[in-house]
Structure prediction request, 214 residues.
Amino acid sequence: MQTITLQNTLPLVFVGENIPASCVWQCSCIFSRGETVLVEAASGGGKSSMCAYIYGARTDYRGTILFDGLDISKLSMSDWLEQRRTHLAYLPQDLSLFPELSAWDNIQLKNRLTNHFTYSRIEQMLEMLGIADRRDYPAGRMSIGQQQRVAIIRAICQPFDFLLIDEPVSHLDSHNNRIAAELIAEEATRQGAGIISTSVGNPLLLDYSRTLHL
Prediction:
């Protein structure tokens, strides 16, 4: 996948509202593979909705979203499975970890399907992010910041053309933010992928191609 285009897209909850001028809503917004884009918004501006629409997790919007010119409303369930397996990686704001499973098992649930990283590489990333000693802890007993680091590793355990990451470091200090950014940027560069990252004030410390405001 080379481009994701939002054409006159608007969450249904905003229809009829007097919303501020936006670089995304109610206009033509194109994300290109290989670029790194920061989408900033105030709380309630719709950044999580935007990511969920692109990933096909929600459809409560008007307008059109296109993958390489193809209207995503035409995709079948098998088409979506293929998109999510090989083209789109997604880290939602709620992280979607299984709280009863360990950090290691949460990551391996995905990595066993993709065979993307070796065990040693995952262990190296856990060490880099300072959570190697928590690998066997249930995710539900970890702090939100620790859970975010687990979810970041899990998110990049697959092939992708675009990585959607919704407030990925909201609970991380600048040191762990920087390390997480380095891991994400390294993997995206290796795959020639684009990154769409959202923030309400604590952005992932990447070198952004551009910044959009909702």
Observations:
- Residues 3-213 form a domain with the Rossmann fold fold (CATH 3.40.50.300).
- The beta strands are 3-11, 28-32, 36-40, 61-67, 70-71, 88-91, 162-166, 194-199, 210-213.
- The longest strand covers residues 3-11.
- The chain has one domain: 3-213.
